[in-house]
């Protein structure tokens, strides 16, 4: 029983650490992989807490499908968090220039 | 100003979580005994094996006692898949797909995928056929099958789902679900009533309508998720 509690606490600490990493990381691919790891740990925790149904769902959807959908999205957009903002700003600046040129 | 607002929001959320949770005493048994059920949870635990002969109580709750909720969930998933399909829809010629993966995947992945792909499909089918006996069910099994298709899509460039077949599978599964529900209305008294013989506990063919509905849900979820993934992977790279 003590061993079980220790395992749950260790998993929870790793879970929180990975979650903070996923939020702070600017490289979105790394952040996506971190969310996959969160799902993996969560699925193990669900299994230990006697919820195998939820563990199966979390394993199939959280680890595989959601991660892959995010990876596909990153492939079609941009990988770094800053890039999006820069391109949006530059596009806005271009539109501003065009409007000024017309005036 | 923004930080103050965030702090205020956190305090409000924390307070509203703390107040209801503080009124529940930690570790108290509020279920009542299984022999003499007083709450709904204890009722389900005590009556499911004897009334429905279903070993997995969660499946009994999801499909039998809360069957109408599951029908709603399945339609939500259907709407989500349709929405993604309509947003990402691109006019393309028959049988033509865009180049989805620029580089071919490694030979290791290709050989491994070919080996493990049938095993994943069989595991998914096992999970949803045995939904009333072992943990898991239609949603889990369908998601596992979609994972198998995803593995093949990532390994082989020219592996694509046939969307006509997917649509047919999805529609037939949905019709089966609603048809079984209407059957309950005709034979019994209410929609989705368990009108078939329940059989003996721990048999594969037991539980009345529960295995039929879960097999239908499994096919539906697998078809929807596989269709969503195929649509997403077919977007042309800029």
Structural class of chain A: mainly alpha
Shape of chain A: elongated
Give the biggest beta sheet of chain A.
none
Oligomer: heterodimer
Q: Give me the secondary-structure category of chain B.
A: mainly alpha
**What is the largest interface, and how many residues per chain?**
A-B, 14 and 22 residues
Low-confidence stretches of chain B: none
Low-pLDDT stretches of chain A are none
How would a crystallographer describe the biggest sheet of chain B?
A: none
Percent of residues in β-strands of chain B: under 5%
Number of strands of chain A: 0
Question: In percent terms, what proportion of residues of chain A is strand?
Answer: under 5%
Number of domains of chain B: 1
Instruction: Calculate the mean pLDDT score of chain A and round it.
Output: 88
Order of helices and strands of chain B: HHHHHHHH
Order of helices and strands of chain A: HHHH
């Amino acid at each position: 029983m003590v061993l079980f509690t220790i395992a749950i606490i260790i998993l929870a600490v790793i879970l929180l650490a990975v979650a903070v990493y996923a939020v702070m990381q600017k490289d979105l691919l790394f952040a996506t992989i971190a969310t996959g790891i969160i799902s993996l740990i969560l699925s193990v925790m669900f299994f230990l807490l006697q919820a195998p149904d939820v563990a199966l769902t979390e394993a199939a959807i959280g680890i595989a499908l959601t991660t892959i959908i995010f990876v596909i999205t990153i492939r079609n957009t941009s990988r770094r968090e800053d890039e999006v903002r820069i391109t949006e700003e530059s596009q806005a600046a271009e539109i501003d220039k065009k409007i000024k040129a017309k005036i | 100003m923004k930080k103050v607002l965030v702090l205020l929001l956190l305090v409000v959320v924390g307070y509203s979580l703390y107040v209801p949770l503080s009124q529940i005493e930690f570790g108290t048994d509020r279920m009542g005994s299984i022999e003499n059920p007083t709450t709904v949870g204890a009722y389900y635990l005590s009556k499911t094996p004897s009334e429905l002969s279903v070993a997995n109580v969660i499946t009994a709750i999801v499909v039998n006692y809360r069957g109408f909720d599951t029908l709603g969930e399945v339609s939500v998933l259907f709407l989500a898949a349709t929405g993604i399909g309509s947003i990402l829809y691109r006019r393309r010629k028959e049988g033509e797909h865009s180049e989805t993966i620029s580089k071919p995947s490694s030979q290791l992945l290709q050989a491994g995928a070919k080996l493990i792909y049938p095993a994943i499909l069989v595991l998914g089918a096992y999970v949803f056929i045995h939904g009333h006996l072992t943990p898991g069910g239609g949603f889990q099994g369908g998601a596992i099958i979609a994972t198998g298709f995803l593995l093949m899509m990532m390994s082989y460039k020219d592996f694509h789902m046939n969307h006509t077949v997917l649509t047919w599978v999805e529609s037939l599964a949905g019709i089966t679900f609603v048809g079984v529900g209407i059957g309950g209305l005709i034979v019994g008294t209410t929609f989705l009533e368990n009108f078939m013989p329940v059989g003996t506990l721990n048999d594969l063919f037991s539980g009345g309508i529960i295995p039929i509905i879960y097999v239908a849900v499994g096919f539906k979820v697998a078809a929807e998720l596989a269709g969503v993934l195929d649509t997403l992977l077919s977007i042309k790279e800029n």
